[in-house]
Design brief:
Elements: E1 8-10, E2 17-19, H1 22-29, E3 48-49, E4 57-58, E5 65-68, E6 77-81, E7 85-87, E8 91-100, E9 111-118, E10 125-130, E11 138-144, E12 147-158, E13 166-176, E14 193-195, E15 202-206, E16 228-233, E17 242-247, E18 255-266, E19 271-279, E20 284-289, E21 299-307, E22 311-319, E23 326-335, E24 364-365, E25 373-376, E26 393-398, E27 407-412, E28 420-431, E29 440-446, E30 452-457, E31 467-475, E32 479-487, E33 495-505, E34 520-521, E35 531-532, E36 541-544, E37 564-568, E38 578-582, E39 589-601, E40 608-615, E41 622-628, E42 636-644, E43 648-655, E44 664-673, H2 682-687, E45 693-697
Parallel strand pairs: 42-45
Antiparallel strand pairs: 1-2, 3-6, 4-5, 5-13, 6-12, 7-12, 8-11, 8-13, 9-10, 9-12, 14-17, 15-16, 16-23, 17-22, 18-21, 18-23, 19-20, 19-22, 24-27, 25-26, 26-33, 27-32, 28-31, 28-33, 29-30, 29-32, 34-44, 35-38, 36-37, 37-44, 38-43, 39-42, 39-44, 40-41, 40-43
Length: about 700
């Protein structure tokens, strides 16, 4: 498989392309590369192939490393591991890569994954993944938030189907700063791309490039002909309102602050220079527009930029005709502090959320009366506890106690800024009503409480099951979220429970949120990295909804109420028979690990649920945690704290009890580095119903 050589941005009458030339390679090889970077000229710069997998091959002529099907089979993996790195300041990691395959779209394509491996975590964090083949080099840009912890970068290439499948890495570069920053002196333009238009495009200006018919300026960075910048010229315009777009890399970590850049305008018959943001769903928002061009000099622009979820920055120029002049752009930078004269407080998801364990947080009720009460239910076989842990507090609207029909209980959330997209998530459980329609509704109130807009309401729901609701909304004015419980008549009232409210920026259904969190498994898509010693009717089963046997098992999963969980079906096992679910291999690290999960053990004949630690090379397993017999009709949270410096696995073992009413279920497994202490709720500790915490060292 042939791969092209070095990346350089060049001019073209129609568009910006990325091409590779040997002169750029020679220049790159003479520069001192920052830590975590490599151009693969003569060696791999401290990046090593992991012995257990395929090796990455350094091309004989330099320029790149690769793995392909000439010496490997479909499904085999090559893993590249960096030396120890640190990013005490915000950094940008850029990867120049290519995935190539034979013609057609294979059902099982090759894949390139990039992970971050922290020294104190037993799992790797997936930062980025790509599988689309290309006949040219592509650039991925990843923001790395500053951290005091050491880490390694792990790059895994998995070969897909095809006789000529190959994966190659041309360059890895880690630099201090943000990925949306650029002075356009690098040959790859910092990952910025031009949205191609037949008549008007952004080009590289400066240096020896003189293709424009306009009198272009010197660049701003070096203030000489040696430097480079981007420009768009109206000379090729053929139609009214032709548009050129220069698009930044997508942000990959939350950021908020001041975006600044330098620009020049030459307006003869007019042009419009604007800056937009665009999220993963394609939603545009204008954040800046040029005013009077003034003199033909470099002008500084500063604009507030907030990207709590992935966004692109788009520099757009619209021309009215071929005499619209030109626009030049240089030295894009970002600062995490506000621009001058900007003091608006940023949105805080923490302040807008509440699990009601200690109080109502920033939520409040009508002054006329309190329709919602903060309650706690002792775990038992007849009534579900809260959603957070099964043992804590939640809000309850008991409309049976009302004295008049049409009663409404309102719960107001904190004030939210206008013109931002929000994702509201919460859990609710309803029981006692003959008709559930509109027993719980969510409204958006403007700050003056004059305008209200219903954005969600209950239609039907399983009775007494915690259900998750997700709502995406956006309003131009400052608003508040209001939860309303309703009793339509004295003959049809019941209980409405509410818990674990979160409000975040962005869409609830954004593609960037589909990657599973590291170290977590909700079983919504599959069994994650868990495996079983055998698979048959007596194994752990992935299921949604109620279990087949009455008076045992959950009515729904813990994650959403309508999703998936893992369980044993006791009617398929005999008394004392075991089912074992094994995690994938976990790295041994110094310090403590915290394993949390939710379990459901309801039924008169319930047996045992055990959690074991199995260290690599040992035949014996160590018991970390155990529950025996019926526990609650609710999902309960388990916290297990342990230490292990060797590679290991966690094993969930369920043992069938004396009768068929012995279903056992687990859900929402999460591995975390560090102590479990901060996850224990003070209210649970003081009430006497606190969870047991196992601490074991090996």
């Amino acid at each position: 498989m042939l791969f092209r050589s070095v990346l350089l941005a060049v001019q073209d009458p129609a568009r910006i392309e990325t091409r590779f030339v040997s002169t750029a390679l020679q220049l790159a090889s003479t520069l001192d590369l920052p830590a975590g970077s490599c151009t693969f000229e003569e060696n791999t710069c401290g990046f090593d192939s992991v012995f257990e997998f395929l090796p990455w091959i350094l091309n004989e002529e330099g320029h790149y490393i690769y793995v392909d099907t000439s010496f490997a089979k479909q499904g085999e993996k090559a893993v590249l591991l960096s030396p120890d790195l640190q990013a005490e300041e915000w950094s940008c990691l850029r990867l120049v890569y290519q995935i190539a395959t034979s013609s057609g779209s294979p059902s099982d394509p090759s894949r390139l994954n990039l992970y971050m491996r922290f020294e104190d975590e037993s799992f790797d964090r997936l930062l980025w993944s790509a599988k689309n083949p290309s006949d040219s080099w592509l650039i991925a840009s990843l923001d790395l938030q500053n951290t005091s912890k050491k880490f390694k970068i792990l790059i895994a290439g998995v070969l897909g189907h095809g006789n000529t499948s190959s994966i190659a890495l041309f360059e890895i570069k880690m630099t201090t700063g943000y990925c949306i920053e650029c002075d356009f002196e690098e040959n790859h333009l910092c990952g910025f791309v031009n949205h191609w238009n037949p008549n008007v495009n952004w080009f590289v200006g400066g240096g020896n490039m003189r293709n424009s018919q306009s009198a272009l300026p010197q660049d701003h960075t070096f203030k000489s002909e040696l430097g480079h910048y981007m420009y768009v010229d109206s000379v090729y315009i053929k139609h009214f309102q032709e548009v050129a777009q220069l698009i930044s890399p997508m942000t990959t970590a939350p950021m908020s602050g001041c975006l600044s850049f330098y620009y020049q305008l030459q307006q003869r018959n007019g042009n419009i220079f604007s800056v937009y943001t665009r999220d993963a769903a394609g939603l545009y928002e204008e954040i800046w527009k040029a005013g009077d061009p003034g003199n033909a000099v470099w002008n500084l622009a500063e604009v507030e930029f907030s990207a709590p979820y992935p966004k692109e920055v788009i520099f757009e120029v619209a021309f009215n005709g071929p005499k619209g002049g030109y626009v030049a752009l240089d030295d894009i930078s970002f600062s995490p502090v506000h621009c001058q004269n900007q003091t608006e407080r940023p949105f805080s998801a923490l302040e807008a959320s509440c699990n009601f364990e200690e109080d109502l947080c920033n939520f409040y009720q009508d002054k006329e009366g309190s329709g919602w009460t903060r309650v706690k239910v002792k775990p038992n076989m007849y009534r579900a506890g809260d959603h957070t842990s099964g043992l804590g507090y939640f809000l309850l609207a008991n409309t049976k106690l009302t004295s008049q029909p049409g009663y409404i209980g309102r719960l107001y959330g904190p004030s939210l800024r206008g013109n931002l997209q929000y994702c509201l998530r919460f859990y609710y459980a309803i029981s006692g009503f003959l008709k559930m329609s509109d027993t719980l509704a969510v409204y958006i109130f403007e700050e003056n409480h004059v305008v209200q807009d219903k954005i969600w309401s209950v239609l039907e729901s399983p009775r007494g099951v915690w259900m998750q609701a997700e709502i995406t909304f956006r309003k131009p004015m400052p608003t508040k979220v209001v939860f309303m419980s309703l009793c339509k008549s004295l003959w049809d009232c019941g209980l409405v429970a509410l818990d674990d409210i979160t409000i975040e920026l962005g869409s609830c259904w954004s593609p960037e949120k589909l990657l599973p969190p590291p170290g977590e498994c909700t079983f919504e898509q599959d069994e994650c990295v868990f495996t079983q010693e055998r698979r048959n009717r007596s194994s752990w089963q992935r299921r949604r909804g109620e279990t087949p046997t009455s008076y045992t098992g959950p009515k729904g999963d813990h994650t959403t109420g309508v999703g998936y969980y893992m369980y044993i079906e006791a009617s398929h096992l005999v008394y004392g028979q075991k089912a074992r679910l094994l995690s994938g291999p976990l790295r041994g690290v110094t310090g403590k690990h915290c394993l949390t999960f939710f379990y459901h053990m309801y039924g008169a004949g319930t047996g045992l649920l055990n959690v074991y630690l199995k260290k690599e090379g040992d035949s014996e397993e160590s018991l970390l945690w155990r529950r025996r017999g019926e526990q609650s009709i609710s999902w309960l949270r388990a916290l297990i704290e342990y230490s292990c410096e060797r590679q290991h696995q966690i094993i969930f073992e369920a043992i069938r009890g004396v009768s068929v009413r012995s279903d056992i279920a687990i859900d929402d497994i999460k591995f975390q580095a560090g102590s479990c202490a901060e996850m224990e709720d003070k209210s649970q500790q003081s009430s006497g119903y606190s969870e047991d915490l196992n601490e074991i060292e090996y």
